[in-house]
């Protein structure tokens, strides 16, 4: 075969299934037959709005960066893989030479090529090529759906590291979407104590409960009121904002104990927000931003293969590539019933 099918984003809210050439495998690359792709919130923003902040889609474009599949072919310099291997694809290809890369923070690479981030094409196609060092073998008995989940789990692992979560820490997470649930799993796996999570969507809170978290519906009563006694007793060590809600930062400043830490995981819905600076200073809170992840995929594969959480519950809908537009419309319009939608390009 010389061509493959791909879901091409041709304009806002419009995808077309087109035949495009199968990419040639470079000397240091592997050709992957894509078996499962998770739909991320960033994909939905690019699909429906055409941009995230100042990052605008250049049409035609291919979305998708949570990918797993089967090695189809390898370049002549490749030593780690052979055809038939099952792999998870780390979608951010760093240059390796800029100051950030040399400092070991390759997720901040100045020349990062991130799949689905314009203008780099993503995973919603039957085949893709990727550098050998950004491809990771998964167990043959791991589902490709769990293989695709390694990407959001990597975000959660990086969040745990940024927040310096310690054994027995009590953690409060704002937002019970896919990243919030992934954070529950990562926090539990590192030995933290009680994990609490708040949201306004009952279906998501119920799933978070099944992941082992203590849940709070904040649609009517703020979390500060519901946790007033624990806040007063300095019992919340770490806060994680995963929903991208600007007020979530202020909420965590209120809730986290003096000397605690906060990590901002979600993509913010606004560039600026009112912040209680006085509390931030007098409580001496450590605050970290988070941008994707680095050096997380091996641990992410371990986590995805574990029983620390019922990960398969997250896969709420499944679509073939032909229905990629429907999948993104559902993710956009039905957040209450959609957790992680999976698209199967080779079904």
Q: Quick recap of the structure?
A:
This protein has 347 residues and is an alpha/beta fold. The protein has eleven helices and 19 strands.
The name of the CATH superfamily of the largest domain reads Medium-chain alcohol dehydrogenases, catalytic domain
CATH class of the largest domain: Alpha Beta
Mind telling me which CATH architecture of the largest domain this is? Alpha-Beta Complex
Radius of gyration over alpha carbons?
20 Å
Number of strands: 19
Helix-strand string: EEEHEEEEEHEEEHEHEHEHHEHEHEHEHE
- Determine the CATH topology of the largest domain: Quinone Oxidoreductase, Chain A, domain 1
Mean pLDDT reading: 96
**Helix/sheet category:** alpha/beta
The largest β sheet comes out as: 7 strands, mixed
The helicity comes to: 25-40%
- Pick out the low-confidence regions: none
- Beta-strand content bin: 25-35%
Structural shape? globular
| Through-space gap between termini | 16 Å
Count the DSSP helices.
11
How many domains make up the 3D coordinates? Answer: 2
Structure overview:
By secondary structure, the chain is α/β, with parallel strands linked by helices. It folds into two domains: 3-137 and 310-344, Quinone Oxidoreductase, Chain A, domain 1, CATH 3.90.180; 156-289, NAD(P)-binding Rossmann-like Domain (Rossmann fold, 3-Layer(aba) Sandwich). Helix content is 28%, strand content 27%. It has eleven helices and 19 strands. It has helices spanning 41-49, 99-102, 144-163, 178-189, 202-210, 223-226, 228-232, 246-255, 277-282, 297-305, 324-333; strands at residues 3-11, 14-21, 29-38, 51-52, 55-56, 66-74, 86-89, 92-93, 113-114, 127-131, 135-137, 171-174, 195-199, 214-217, 238-241, 261-264, 286-289, 315-320, 340-344. The strands form five sheets. Strands 3, 6, 7, 10, 11, 18 and 19 form a seven-stranded mixed beta sheet that branches. A six-stranded parallel beta sheet has the order 14-13-12-15-16-17, with helices on both faces. Helix 3 crosses helix 10. The radius of gyration is 20 Å and the shape is globular. The chain starts with a strand and ends with a strand. The mean pLDDT is 96.
